[in-house]
Amino acid sequence: MNNETAPTHLDVKAFAQATSAIAGHDLLSKYARLLDETKGQGADRIINWSARGELRSDEAGAEQVWLHLAVDASLPLICQRCLGPADIAVCVNQSFRFVDSEDAAADQDEEAEEDVLVLSHDFSLADLIEDEVLMALPVIPRHEACPGVLKLSAADPGFEAAATEKRNPFAVLAKLQIGEGS
């Protein structure tokens, strides 16, 4: 199955039982929180994604529902080194194991290497895609090598002259006294 947009509702267990796989391409504009991160730039950029479901057996032979997600995107962010635009590549390749309840997910998520989510018949793959891309964004986006010359210092020509110039602290008082006598 190949979709141009992520399904809004996915029955994860049925998806895994069928060993289904889907892939698609969404515009960045579909993902409001990602678009906020780019300050509204690049709304026409493409986010490529694919998802695959599978069933696995645990050590006790119990059936486990898994979803594998891959996302590739290039997002226009602001380089924090040169403050210019930077295309930042984001790649996600994550596996999720699904359990029956929030309590089970909370208990198992801390110990598991994979992410543990709650099984749902109404699971939003689009929300998962957006969440994972947001978490994959660098804390400090920057170019590998900034394209221009970086200005690493600022100078005020009058600053040095003002610092070396001796001031008479009583000059201000003298001006005030002259002003009062008139």
Detail the topology: elements first, then pairings.
Blueprint: H1 12-17, E1 21-27, H2 32-37, E2 46-57, E3 63-78, E4 85-99, H3 102-109, E5 115-118, H4 125-136, H5 157-164, H6 171-181
Parallel strand pairs: 4-5
Antiparallel strand pairs: 1-2, 2-3, 3-4
What does this structure look like?
With about 180 residues, this protein is α+β, with helices and mostly antiparallel strands. It has a domain at about 10-135. It has six helices and five strands. The chain has helices at about 10-15, 30-35, 100-110, 125-135, 155-165, 170-180; strands at about 20-25, 45-55, 65-80, 85-100, 115-120. It has a five-stranded mixed beta sheet with strand order 1-2-3-4-5. A hairpin with a 5-residue loop joins strand 2 and strand 3. The mean pLDDT is about 85.
Structure summarized in a few sentences:
This protein has 182 residues and is of the alpha+beta class. It contains 6 helices and 5 strands; from the N terminus they run H-E-H-E-E-E-H-E-H-H-H.
